[in-house]
Design goal:
about 90 residues, alpha+beta, 2 helices, spermatogenesis
Length: about 90
């Protein structure tokens, strides 16, 4: 499912953030990744959703909790859906 993870597109390789952003598409991907990490970190540190609403990803040696769609937590699923909608909107600009 495309919305199974809040940022399913991120953390695919060790080079998460490129040192050189030369195209509009690279910039868009970077903004999406940063937004996903920021929202996930804020909600995790504030304890807004239960632990089961997060998946664990690694950014080099740093463990990052990423919000994911969870049937047991409808509010986290709603936030994930909003993120996907906003990502689609960013692409259309």
């Amino acid at each position: 499912m495309a919305t199974a993870n809040f940022c399913c597109f991120m953390l695919q390789s060790a080079a998460i953030f490129s040192n050189k952003i030369s195209t509009e598409q690279q910039s868009l991907v970077l903004v999406k990744r940063l937004l996903a990490i920021a929202v996930s970190c804020i909600t995790y540190l504030r304890g807004i959703f239960p632990e089961c609403a997060y998946g664990t990803r690694y950014l080099d040696d740093l463990c990052v909790k990423i919000l994911k769609e969870d049937k047991n937590c409808p509010s986290s699923s709603q936030l994930v859906k909003w993120y996907v909608i906003s990502s689609s909107y960013m692409e259309s600009l």
